[in-house]
Amino acid sequence: LTGSFPEAVLNISVLTGLSLAFNDLRGEVASDLGNSLPNLELFELDGNSFHGKIPPSITNASNLYLIEVSNNNFTEGLPSSIGKLSKLSWLNLERNKFHGRNEEDWEFLNSLSNCTELQMFSVAWNRLEGQVPKSFGNYSIQLQYVHMGQNRLSGGFPSGLENLPNLIVVELSGNQLTGVLPDWIGALKSLQKLTVRDNIFTGFIPSSLSN
C-alpha cells in the first residue's frame, strides 16, 4: 500500500485491531486516531515511512495492549499521558528518530511507570542521549524485555533495572555507558541475555552473574 494514512478507517469506531505494517505508507498519523477508534486494542504501523509524532489522542484508546511503530521516521516521543494506557504490555519504538536531550523529551518514558502491565519495551536504534531516568526503576515488575541499544546514552549502568526482578533480556549495546557492571545484576534470576558491547565499561565481569 502507498500514500498517506488511510483516514477512512477512522469511521470504523468498533475496530479493535489495526495493522498497516510493512507497506509504503508515509506522512503523519491522523491526529484524532484515539478519539475515532476508542476500542482499539492492537495498533501496528511498523515498516513504513511515517514521520512526525504519535498523536496524543492515542491514549484515549484505553484498551490498547500493543503499540508497534518500529522502522519508521517518527521524531517526537509518545505523549506524556501514555501512562493512562493501563493495559499496555508491548511497546516497540525501535528504529525511528526519537530524540531525548532533556527532561521534557524523557517525559513519556517517566509516565510509562504507570503502565503496570508492561512486559516488552524497546527504544533501540533511536537518538536518545544522556542518562536513563531513575524513574525506570518504577516500571512494572512484569517487565521482561528492555531494548535500549544503539542510542547515545551515557552515565553508568541504569540503576533502575535493579528493581525489575523478572527481566529476561537487557540490551544496552552501542551507547556511551561507563563505569563498572554492578554486582546486583546477579539478583536478576530470570535474566537470559545481557548485551553491553560497544560501550565504555571497565573493570571486571561481576561474579554474581553466575547466579
Secondary structure: elements and pairs:
Layout: E1 2-3, E2 17-19, E3 24-27, H1 33-36, E4 42-44, E5 49-53, E6 66-68, E7 73-76, E8 90-92, E9 99-100, H2 103-111, E10 120-122, E11 127-130, E12 145-147, E13 152-155, E14 169-171, E15 176-179, E16 193-195, E17 200-201
Parallel strand pairs: 1-3, 2-4, 3-5, 4-6, 5-7, 6-8, 8-10, 9-11, 10-12, 11-13, 12-14, 13-15, 14-16, 15-17
Q: What do these coordinates show?
A:
- This protein has helices spanning 33-36, 103-111; strands at 2-3, 17-19, 24-27, 42-44, 49-53, 66-68, 73-76, 90-92, 99-100, 120-122, 127-130, 145-147, 152-155, 169-171, 176-179, 193-195, 200-201.
- The strands form three sheets. Strands 2-4-6-8-10-12-14-16 form an eight-stranded parallel β-sheet, with no helix packed on it.
- By secondary structure, it is mainly beta.
- The chain contains two helices and 17 strands.
- The model has no long low-confidence stretch (mean pLDDT 94).
- The longest helix has 9 residues, at 103-111.
- Fraction of residues in helix: under 10%
Query: From the helix content, strand content and strand pairing, which structural class follows?
Result: mainly beta
SSE pattern: EEEHEEEEEEHEEEEEEEE
What's the total helix number?
A: 2
The average pLDDT is 94
Report the C-alpha radius of gyration, rounded.
18 Å
Strand order of the largest sheet: 2-4-6-8-10-12-14-16
Q: Count the E strands.
A: 17
Distance between the termini: 49 Å
What percent strand? 25-35%
